[in-house]
Design a protein that fits this description.
single chain; mainly alpha; Lysozyme; two-stranded antiparallel sheet; about 55% helix; globular
């Protein structure tokens, strides 16, 4: 687990992610056609998952997404950690780490400005998705708390 990730943020991120990713033990295609299962897992999945496999995939993928915290040099609150891990879970830690949001945070730009960058990440496959708009709004709100 990322040493910067607090247990409170880890727990909150798992709840937030689970609420937005949904849950299905059966393989399905996400809105842009990516094979997905469990809580939005896209790696190491099969046609049918057992609930305990889904739980393990969620933990693995949240820990993987928490790598975004290694890219940020400024102190973060638990709420900011939760918001950024949820975002990185959805967009990928590599994309998150190379984002304007991370660059602004590391440059010492006020929190309100870099948290607002979350609102830009509402597109998938070139389409603005209402679910991503809602998710980013909640992540931004958390980031600012």
């Amino acid at each position: 687990m990322n040493s910067k990730l607090s247990i409170a943020a880890l727990t909150s991120a798992m709840v937030l992610i689970g609420g937005y990713e949904g849950y299905s033990t059966r393989l399905y295609l996400d809105p842009v056609g990516i094979p997905t299962a469990c809580f939005g897992a896209t790696r190491d999945i099969s046609t049918d998952q057992k609930p305990e496999e889904c739980a393990a995939l969620l933990v693995r993928d949240v820990v993987w997404a928490s790598r975004v915290l290694d890219c940020i040099d400024v102190p973060l609150t638990d709420n900011q950690q939760t918001a950024l891990v949820s975002w990185a879970y959805n967009v990928g830690a590599n994309a998150a780490c190379t984002s304007t949001l991370v660059r602004l945070a590391n440059a010492g730009v006020p929190t309100a400005h870099w948290c607002a960058e979350l609102d830009r990440w509402v597109y998938a496959g070139g389409r603005k998705l209402p679910g991503l708009v809602r998710r980013r709004a909640e992540e931004r709100e958390l980031c600012l708390r």
